[in-house]
């Protein structure tokens, strides 16, 4: 029996820092991305775990932020809080996590 979890499709699950103005918030994120052939850019998106600090700062509004992981950082937009208190985050261009840089790396990745 092959059980498939929705988390199996994620590119990065782990800790991150969300930076808003001069505020840095340590959070847990789940991110994934895809190459958009129409405009030739990489799009990444995901969810940021529940955070009282984010709730207070965002107050239901969307904000531009920087997301930093141990692999890098990227600009994105955060907003759209779900029923469980998680926030949707999205960005375009290089993501804040490592991605394969060649087809050899993609083929060597176990599935």
Describe, in plain words, how this protein is organized in 3D.
The chain has a domain at 11-87. It contains two helices and six strands. The protein has helices spanning 52-58, 103-108; strands at residues 12-20, 23-36, 41-48, 63-69, 72-81, 87-92. The chain has a six-stranded antiparallel beta barrel with strand order 1-2-3-6-5-4. Strand 5 (72-81) and strand 6 (87-92) form a beta hairpin. The protein is globular and about 35 Å long.
Write the layout of secondary structure elements.
Elements: E1 12-20, E2 23-36, E3 41-48, H1 52-58, E4 63-69, E5 72-81, E6 87-92, H2 103-108
Antiparallel strand pairs: 1-2, 1-4, 2-3, 3-6, 4-5, 5-6
InterPro entries: DUF4873 (IPR032371)
Organism: Nocardia coubleae
Domain DUF4873: 10-98
Rg, nearest Å: 15 Å
Distance between the termini: 16 Å
What is the helix fraction of residues, given as a range? Answer: 10-25%
Oligomer: single chain
Count the helices. How many?
A: 2
Unreliable parts: 102-111
Strands side by side in the biggest sheet: 1-2-3-6-5-4
The number of strands is 6
Summarize the helix and strand pattern as letters. Answer: EEEHEEEH
Q: Give the integer mean of the pLDDT values.
A: 86
Tell the overall outline.
globular
Q: What does this entry show, briefly?
A:
It comes from Nocardia coubleae. By secondary structure, the chain is mainly β.
